[in-house]
Amino acid sequence: MAVWLVGGLAALSGWSFVAVKKDDFKATQMEFGRVKSAYAEKSLALRKLFSGKGLEINQSSVMLRAFKHEKQLELWAKPTESSRFQLVKTYAVCFASGEAGPKRQTGDGQVPEGFYTINRWNPQSSFHLSLGINYPNASDRILADRKNPGGDIFIHGDCVSIGCMAMTDDRIKEIYIAFVEARNAGQASVPVHIFPARPGLAAWQQLLAQYADDKAMLAFWQNLKAGHDAFERLHTLPRIRVDAKGGYLFN
Predict the structure, then answer these.
(1) Cα atoms in the Cβ-side hemisphere of radius 13 Å centred on 245
(2) What are the structural domains, with CATH classification, of the chain?
(3) DSSP-based three-state secondary structure for 78
(4) pTM (2 decimals)?
(5) Angle 202-210/215-234 helices, nearest 10 degrees?
(6) How much of the chain is in helix, strand and coil states, percent to nearest 5?
């Protein structure tokens, strides 16, 4: 998934992710001024946003879906003990670079496409606040450049980036808080699904026509659509695996 996803530009500014126990994570994050300020500014509005959907922000699991062509980032949430997500809010992407297609090597300027998770929370980012995604994932390690696939991909603020998409600081504060709350409530894996466009709509069909001669790209995008459609049916997360050729498998 802020916005967006930052290519190698997003430095960690000296912050190292340290695993903490459930209920300790938020307290650790609140030791940092930017997180504390974000809570002061945004927590009440975010709680009202969640409660309007029948959710408690401190008892919810979350996920993100990103659509590059539309420059949209969706925040989804569900009660911790439930399996069905609902859309909480759609954020406009502030700045974007790159084009349709996955990230495949260092310096290609591309936002990844595929199925990822958040693996880092950076409260002292060079881009205000940032959430790191696990690029390269198992699929990327097969399909991307084996020696130089790139890395350090983040969802972040500051509305500037090279090779990625960025949110405003105002928007990343809400997203960051929602993810801190979910992690604090025990959500170990926070999904981020990234697509070149909304599958099935006009922009998607235009992409398929534009890349009609690129069979590998079409096959990759149809594979992503299968994962998108698996979630859309019931708004529940499919089990996702990767085969020996780098393709995603959904159950």
Answers:
(1) 6
(2) 5-198 (2.40.440.10)
(3) strand
(4) 0.90
(5) 160
(6) 30, 25, 45
3-state secondary structure of 37: helix
pLDDT for 116-139, tens place per residue?
Answer: 999 899 999 999 999 999 999 999
Q: Is 156 a catalytic residue?
A: yes
Q: What is the rounded distance in angstroms from the CA atom of residue 179 to the CA atom of residue 60? A: 10
Q: How many residues does the chain have?
A: 251
Q: Which of 156, 159, 193, 228 is catalytic?
A: 156
| Residue 228 annotated as catalytic | no
Question: Beta strands 86-92 and 240-242: pairing type?
Answer: unpaired
Residue 136's closest CA among 160, 109, 179, 102?
A: 102
Q: Are strands 95-96 and 165-166 parallel, antiparallel or unpaired?
A: antiparallel
Of 94, 128, 164, 193, the catalytic one is 164
